Amino acid sequence: MQTNTPPRNTIRLTRRGRLVLIATGAVVAGTAVAVPLLTREGNGDTRPTSLVIPEGWRASQIYTAIDKALALPPGSTRKSLPKANLKLPDDARGNPEGYLFPATYPLPEKVTPESLLSAMTENAGRKFNGAPIAAGAQRNAMNVYQAVTIASLVQAEAATKADMGKVARVIFNRLERGMPLQMDSTVNYALNRAKERTTQNDTRIDSPYNSYQRMGLPPTPIDNPGVDAMRAAISPTPGDWLYFVTVKPGDTRFTASYAEHRRNVAESDARRPGGKPTR
């Protein structure tokens, strides 16, 4: 439907999927199935010596990766959370999503899920709790936990590092105008899956993470963002954009015009196999 004033229930903000290919395995960004990225000794020892956590992995992926890296029964790491005594902000309410910082973590002989999770949250604390991040969050009238939440959206939605600041600005602009974020990444988080594009039926899910139906930020981060996404969250690129869509790899278009956005979406649809729109 072509309108100058887009109906709230039909605004399409983002439509982008991402496949991450890594030499030691393939990871579909945003899925609940994780392939541990492990470094092994070169002397024939099959025991991994480190575990790589990529930017943008969800907590569920990290739990699975730790289980596999330590050869533990599935679900062991998740069950260890109460014993880990993680250092998290009060707003997190014990949920480490957003604070399992992506990095390479050593796997010494006596490593445990609890020690790995603690290392990740302590790393996040060092990265996120410093004066620059706190000042940046305050400058944008939010607390650090909200900044991490925005960074997680940026991490999930931005096709490139160069787009991160613009995606963050879209989030701020929509929040300031009282518009729902309407980001597919939040719906996919609610559905515990990764999918290139959501359907109209997907956006009807009853979940606090459904940013098509709920106003404001999701209640928690939706993944574990890296430093670049966090910087974008506290220092978004200046601009009036309200919409964006990736038309083709390397070509994400940002606009304040709904009519222009519709044209960009149509071009994106035309490039899809069969040229079929998702809605």
Keywords summarizing the entry:
single chain; 279 residues; alpha+beta; three-stranded antiparallel sheet; two-stranded antiparallel sheet; disordered N terminus
Query: What's the structural domain tally?
Result: 2
Tell me the number of helical segments per DSSP (H or I, 4 or more residues long). Answer: 10
Shape: globular
Distance between the termini: 11 Å
On the 0 to 100 scale, the average pLDDT is: 85
Description:
The chain has 279 residues and is of the alpha+beta class. The chain folds into two domains: 19-128, no CATH class; 157-275, no CATH class. It has ten helices and seven strands. It has helices at 59-69, 76-79, 81-84, 113-128, 131-139, 144-157, 164-176, 184-190, 227-234, 258-270; strands at 19-22, 25-28, 37-40, 48-52, 104-106, 243-248, 251-255. Strands 3-4-5 form a three-stranded antiparallel β-sheet, covered by helices on one side. Strands 1-2 form a two-stranded antiparallel ribbon. Strand 1 (19-22) and strand 2 (25-28) form a beta hairpin. It starts with 18 loop residues before the first strand and ends in a 9-residue tail after the last helix. 39% of the residues are buried.
Brief synopsis:
By secondary structure, the chain is an alpha+beta fold. It contains 10 helices and 7 strands.
Please write out the topology.
Blueprint: E1 19-22, E2 25-28, E3 37-40, E4 48-52, H1 59-69, H2 76-79, H3 81-84, E5 104-106, H4 113-128, H5 131-139, H6 144-157, H7 164-176, H8 184-190, H9 227-234, E6 243-248, E7 251-255, H10 258-270
Antiparallel strand pairs: 1-2, 3-4, 4-5, 6-7
Helix pairs in contact: 5-9, 6-7, 6-9, 7-9
